[in-house]
Design goal:
Blueprint lengths: L6 E5 L3 H23 L1 H8 L6 H20 L4 H24 L3 H26 L4 E5 L11 H4 L16
Antiparallel strand pairs: 1-2
Length: 169
């Protein structure tokens, strides 16, 4: 007769979502460095006047802040939410750029890239949200993995040992 297992509730980390959050942090750092170091060429590539480079630098600072937060924080969920808010701002800005800029196709391609990152951010946020749910954990610490007590199992697997155990035991 099997004894009932002791069980308890606990919060568990979602390691794959946390790994995704770290990757998104590095992506944010890369985008932030690009927007801070090369805002004028980036503005030209999107068909915007060079005067918008200040806006691109501010976006770069936002990306650096969220990337740093994702890489250094033990709680990445608010930083992923900040990335989602930034994605929304970027999509609005790129929508205006597609409508008013000199290169609507390039802006549309950039919007597609931002949309792809937004999907990654939403997936990560959804995975991190599961960390807030209690999960049932069962205690199996009394199990050894042997069919019979360890003293009776000693030497059974040795070469030439007698086969004393039956499959039903």
């Amino acid at each position: 007769m099997a004894l009932p297992r002791e069980q308890y509730q606990e919060y568990q980390l979602n390691h794959s979502a946390r790994q995704s959050a770290r990757r998104l942090g590095w992506i944010s750092i890369g985008l932030g460095v690009l927007e801070l170091c090369a805002p004028v060429p980036l503005a030209r590539a999107l068909g915007l006047p060079a005067s918008t480079s200040v806006l691109l630098r501010l976006c770069g600072l936002r990306e650096l802040a969220t990337g740093t937060g994702l890489l250094l924080s033990d709680k990445p969920e608010p930083w992923v939410q900040a990335r989602l808010a930034g994605d929304a701002l970027d999509m609005v800005a790129l929508g205006v750029t597609m409508h008013c800029g000199d290169r609507p196709l390039t802006a549309a391609l950039a919007a597609g890239g931002v949309a792809g990152l937004a999907v990654m951010d939403m997936t990560c946020a959804k995975g991190l949200a599961t960390e807030q749910e209690l999960t049932t954990v069962y205690d199996y610490s009394d199990r050894s993995g042997f069919a019979q007590p360890a003293a009776q199992m000693r030497g059974v697997a040795a070469p030439g040992a007698p086969k004393e155990l039956s499959p039903s035991s």
